[in-house]
Specification:
CATH superfamily of one domain in chain A: Dipeptide-binding Protein, Domain 3
Strand content of chain A: 15-25%
Structural class of chain A: alpha+beta
Low-confidence stretches of chain B: 1-15
Distance between the termini of chain A: 58 Å
Mean pLDDT of chain A: 89
CATH architecture of one domain in chain A: Roll
Mean pLDDT of chain B: 86
Strand order of the largest sheet of chain A: 8-9-10-1-11-19-12
Order of helices and strands of chain B: HHHHHHHHHHHH
CATH class of one domain in chain A: Alpha Beta
CATH topology of one domain in chain A: Dipeptide-binding Protein, domain 3
Radius of gyration of chain A: 25 Å
Helix content of chain B: over 70%
Structural class of chain B: mainly alpha
CATH architecture of chain B: Orthogonal Bundle
Number of domains of chain B: 1
Largest sheet of chain A: 7 strands, mixed
Helix content of chain A: 25-40%
Number of strands of chain A: 21
CATH superfamily of chain B: MetI-like
Low-confidence stretches of chain A: 1-30
Number of strands of chain B: 0
Oligomer: heterodimer
Distance between the termini of chain B: 39 Å
CATH class of chain B: Mainly Alpha
Strand content of chain B: under 5%
Number of helices of chain A: 16
Shape of chain B: elongated
Chain lengths: 518, 298
């Protein structure tokens, strides 16, 4: 026991030392990359668990997949849908038939040709029940290879987000031969048409890809090798960038952001993301089956304080809708929020029959940022007599409680998708997959169902604005901020040609890394 | 009449050596400078915890978003944290949470461990050999922290459960120590004598066996206090202890993680508080052990 307590004392001393060492790092030397030119050492927030697009459910998988595979269509830096493997596409007037003209002469990494049959093979594979993609392609009725380079997809109803879905994993075309050889699965031997070929994966450490010499886009890719390192601690990423062990990192500690930008020693890229954060209020049980109490909470949350204190003004922007500025559905009107007001909240509390306030439990994940966000919300609500009890749950448990409706309030955000439908439909329509508040409003259902069937963006935006007006009144969910965390990167100065995309996915074919100082 | 005389006689005999022993203990303890230093730290810690509202300049939960991450000096004695709370006030109140949770968890371990060890060592037999000791062995097979983590994870988060988890984690050590002492004492002549004059088991255990098992328990309790502080901080750091926002040293460290390179004071002061608190209890425990050790008798 004495030995144990001694080690305890040593542990606490080490904590103190760690801090002191941390302070010493402030001075720093001239930054320099220690990695060879032509090789890019990338840090990802986690090691991608799955490289088969058929089975992938983690966002981070997409970072590596973007190098290995091409998709039928892609987005540009403004979030507009652009051709990729399909050099053009045509949508029928009734919005049910999509015809894709494919690029010709492309080969998969295993030498087999890319053609309409390959597209049909992949899309049909994604439609099978055991595919993680099947719900995304649920409106697809049939896929037809019209000729060698033409594919026709028929939907059973108009579905406006369809092309946006194809910019993600459901649009990835992998080698049918490799899939067959792998027994229907290419997790270990991913073969696509992408700018880089798979080399190796060392579990718990890194994934390496190398240049595809026969890549179909002229002159690309520029790099020889990319090493993707899974590093879940943003401080570790940051320190390794500074020591030159990493060339590009995907997580920047908020508080270091300005230093990093102002130092001029690194390039920092940040664009607004497509996602949002906030918390559900459970409309199916007390206290939040009472609309006035939901509104009271809504009127007290100080979004600017959250962005300032928790995100250090760099991790995101205040939000009151699921649509960030990157989305065509964004409107200033629906994303603006009322000034926090204790007086207004008290009036609502009286209306709701709880003039002296009430208390509720707010469930959240245990990350430092989420905890602090909870504390700010707690502090915001206190002046009106609303007592918030914070409960932190491991992420898996949190997701479970959320989908089971086992909560009063629960903080859970969304990483965001290109099409606005995918940011709102399943979250607020009656019995929607992610409608964890148990909210139901027939008018919202009707407007959102209409919005997903029409293709005119202006008209859709009008519908979404109407929906937001209702949601601001009903408050099944309190939006707090649009997160930048998936879309901010820092890199060494000799990393050239980097472009940021609103979906936060690294497209590295155009990126090059010159000799130090180049 | 003769009976009363005997009783009186034995009483005076019992008191004198105990007083002498206490004086000797204090003399030996005092000679150990480190032990006195440990005692001083623990005393300061106790005083701080008791008078936290008088010492702390502000509410440890108060947030001021206009004054976040202020360095020590500008933002109070120990600066402010990322939510603009005063770090000094939080460290002061943290002493309360730390001491309270270690007192309760060690108290729980004593409450369970001592009676179990006492009866099990006194009666021996199947219950002792095959039930109690096997359970204790299997509990001890887990590293203490893993055990506390598993218990905390099963019971759920929150400081109350963390204290129970830590307490359960300590039980085996207290059972073992009590039992070992009981085994060495139960065969002594005075126990046999008590039994011979017809004293009941409970009375023998409480009046003759337990008092003579106290010194090692005292040492163990002091050391366990220190370890309980670490354990509470660790569980809070891992999100299984104090509620977020509570001024616990462990959760302060957790919150400070993201600011290690930019706001060192957020981690440094709670880290130092944990360090000194644990150091204090360890030095005190070591001092008590040495002062009680028969080999250091002068």
């Amino acid at each position: 026991m004495v030995g144990l307590t001694r080690s305890g004392a040593v542990a606490s001393l080490m904590v103190a030392l760690l801090v002191v060492v941390g302070c010493g790092g402030g001075g720093g030397g001239a930054p320099q990359s220690n990695t060879p030119p032509g090789t890019l050492e990338v840090a990802l927030e986690a090691e991608p668990p799955e490289l088969d697009p058929n089975l992938s459910s983690a966002y981070v998988d997409r970072q590596v997949m973007a190098s290995l595979y091409d998709r039928l269509v892609d987005i540009d830096e403004n979030g507009k849908i652009v051709p990729m493997l399909a050099k053009s596409y045509d949508v029928s007037d009734d919005g049910k038939t999509y015809t894709f003209e494919l690029e010709q002469g492309i080969k998969f990494h295993d030498g087999t040709p890319f053609n309409a049959e390959a597209v049909k093979f992949n899309l049909e594979r994604y439609q099978e029940k055991d595919s993680v993609r099947s719900t995304e392609l649920e409106p697809v009725k049939s896929v037809e290879a019209v000729d060698e380079y033409t594919v026709r997809v028929t939907l059973d109803r108009p579905f406006a987000p369809f092309l946006a879905v194809l910019t993600d994993r459901a649009g990835i075309i992998a080698s049918p031969k490799a899939i067959e050889e792998g027994g229907g699965r290419i997790s270990k031997n991913p073969v696509g048409t992408g700018p880089f070929e798979f080399v190796e994966r060392v579990r718990g450490d890194h994934i390496t890809v190398k240049k595809n010499p026969d890549y179909w886009r002229e002159g690309l890719p520029k790099l020889d090798t990319i090493v993707y390192n899974g590093i879940d601690d943003e401080n570790v990423q940051y320190q390794n960038l500074r020591s030159g062990e990493l060339d590009l990192i995907d997580s920047i500690p908020f508080v270091e952001f300005e230093n990093l930008q102002e130092s001029g020693d690194y390039r920092v890229s940040v664009v607004p993301g497509l996602g949002y954060q906030g918390f559900y209020l459970n409309t199916q049980q007390p206290p939040f089956d009472n609309k006035a109490l939901r509104q009271a909470v809504y009127r007290l949350v100080d979004r600017e304080a959250i962005v300032k204190a928790v995100l250090r003004n760099v991790g995101g922007t205040p939000a009151n809708s699921p649509f960030s500025k990157q989305s065509f559905a964004y409107s200033k009107e629906s994303d603006s929020y009322p000034e926090p007001s204790v007086a207004a909240a008290k009036k609502l509390l009286e209306e709701g029959g709880e003039p002296n306030g009430f208390s509720f439990t707010y469930k959240t994940d245990p990350s430092p940022a989420s905890q602090q966000l909870g504390q700010v919300v707690q502090n915001n609500l206190k002046p009106a007599g609303i007592d918030v009890k914070l409960e932190q749950l491991e992420f898996g448990t949190l997701l479970e409680d959320s989908s089971n409706g086992n909560f009063e309030a629960l903080a859970l955000g969304w990483s965001g998708r290109i099409d606005p439908d995918l940011n709102i439909y399943d979250f607020v329509t009656t019995n929607g997959d992610f409608n964890d508040s148990g909210y139901s409003n027939p008018k919202v259902d009707r407007l959102l169902n209409e919005a997903r069937t029409i293709s005119d963006e202006g008209r859709r935006k009008e519908l979404y604005t109407q929906v937001m007006e209702i949601l601001h009144e009903d408050v099944p969910y309190v939006y707090t901020y649009h997160s930048n965390t998936t879309t901010d990167f820092a890199m060494q100065l000799n990393v050239k040609g980097f472009t940021a995309y609103p979906d936060g996915i690294l497209r590295l074919a155009d990126v090059d890394k010159k000799q130090q100082g180049g | 009449m003769s009976e009363a005389v005997t009783a009186e006689g034995s009483q005076t005999q019992a008191i004198q050596p105990r007083e002498r022993r206490l004086a000797g203990f204090w003399r030996r303890f005092r000679r150990n400078k480190l032990a006195v230093f440990g005692l001083a730290i623990v005393a300061v810690l106790l005083l701080t915890a008791l008078s936290a509202p008088l010492i702390a300049p502000s509410d440890p939960r108060a947030q001021d978003y206009a004054l976040t991450l202020q360095p020590p000096g500008v933002g109070g004695l120990m600066g402010t944290d990322s939510l603009g709370s005063d770090v000094f006030s939080r460290v002061i109140y943290g002493a309360r949470i730390s001491l309270m949770s270690s007192l309760i968890s060690v108290g729980l371990a004593l409450l369970v461990g001592v009676p179990v060890g006492l009866t099990s060592g006194y009666f021996r037999g199947f219950w002792d050999e095959w039930i109690v000791m096997r359970v204790v062995d299997s509990l001890q097979a887990f590293p203490f922290l893993i055990l506390a983590l598993v218990i905390a994870a099963v019971l759920g988060g929150g400081l109350g459960y963390a204290m129970i988890a830590i307490g359960i984690g300590f039980v085996p050590a207290f059972v073992r120590i009590t039992r070992a002492q009981v085994l060495s004492v139960r065969g002594r002549d005075y126990v046999d004598a008590a039994r011979a004059i017809g004293t009941g088991h409970t009375s023998i255990m409480l009046r003759h066996v337990l008092p003579n098992s106290l010194p090692p328990l005292l040492v163990q309790t002091t050391l366990a206090m220190g370890y309980a502080i670490i354990a509470e901080a660790t569980l809070s750091f891992l999100g299984l202890g104090a509620e977020p926002g509570e001024p616990s040293w462990g959760s302060m460290l957790f919150q400070a993680q993201a600011y290690l390179t930019s706001a060192w004071w957020m981690a440094f002061f709670p880290g130092m508080a944990i360090f000194f608190a644990v150091l204090g209890f360890n030095l005190l425990g070591d001092g008590v052990r040495e002062a009680l050790d028969p080999r250091t008798y002068d």
